[in-house]
Amino acid sequence: MKRLIRAREHALDREIDVAPDPNPGDAGYFTLLDLLGRKLIKSLEDWRLA
Questions:
Q1: Distance separating alpha carbons of residues 26 and 11, to the nearest angstrom
Q2: Among 2, 21, 37, 43, which is 20 to 30 Å from 11 by CA?
Q3: What one-character-per-residue DSSP string does 2-38 give?
Q4: Where are the beta strands (DSSP E) in 1-50?
Q5: Which of 13, 36, 35 lies closest to 24, judged by CA?
Q6: Separation of alpha carbons 7 and 41, rounded Å
Q7: What is the model's pLDDT at position 48?
Q8: 50: Cα within 13 Å, side-chain hemisphere
Q9: Rounded to a whole number, what is the largest CA-CA distance in the chain?
Q10: Distances in Å between the alpha carbon of 38 and those of 3, 11, 25, 35?
């Protein structure tokens, strides 16, 4: 399971063009997903209201 999660994390890093996390045990991956999700939701809300 860890290998699957790490593979998806690396794929996400490549797609959004960020450097891999130097501390893979850190929760930064989930923080990044949260921030990207919030940004996407805000963009969709702005688009809907336009």
A1: 17
A2: 43
A3: HHHHHHHHHHHHHHTT-PPPS-TTSTHHHHHHHHHHH
A4: none
A5: 13
A6: 25
A7: 85
A8: 6
A9: 42
A10: 27, 20, 23, 5
